[in-house]
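Fold this sequence, please.
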Amino acid sequence: MLCPNDRTQTHQVRIVGHYGGPIIIDQCEKCGGIWFDEAEPFRAKQGEAEKIEILDTGILRTPSTIENSTLFCPRDDCAMARFTDKYFPRDIVLVRCPSCHGIWLNRGIFTKYQQFRQELMRAKKSPPDEKLKERIAQLIESHESGRSTGTLRRLGEFLSTPMDVGHTPDIDDTTDVGNVAGTALTILLAILRLIFRF
């Protein structure tokens, strides 16, 4: 397979996918660019970029620009198109074949993408929102203090309210709820305590 960037021969490199399966990609020894068949960059296990772009750390870790205005697919020789993707940093420009949907990443871009994806994963694993914990604590305190009438209804409103709306349900009703609702609420509050360790 010829590199779409400089038309030199590429070599096959084996990387690991998310579930341990092998992914065979093609890398240019001269420019360091990588050819992925459709969706392979998204299936690659975290850290695989560091394994293959370590061939020459000084050169390959530094992103380079694509020199040719038009690149041709190494699979079917179609003219490839540049595009951006919401799962890549905004400054990364991808080049994709409209026919086979393969993706060309220039030198250093795969590493940059995997670092970006790792940051997204860290953001998703952030600790529970303090406001959410406070609202759950208020619900628990309201139930335990005997002000539980309407708490089940309020809890339902709370659970169905999107977190970004900023709406805090009113949990100060003082009318009693029925035994079934009270039992259900007690069980739900116990589960919330286990989840948030109150």
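The chain has a mean pLDDT of 75. Helices lie at 40-43, 48-52, 57-60, 109-124, 130-144, 151-160, 179-196.
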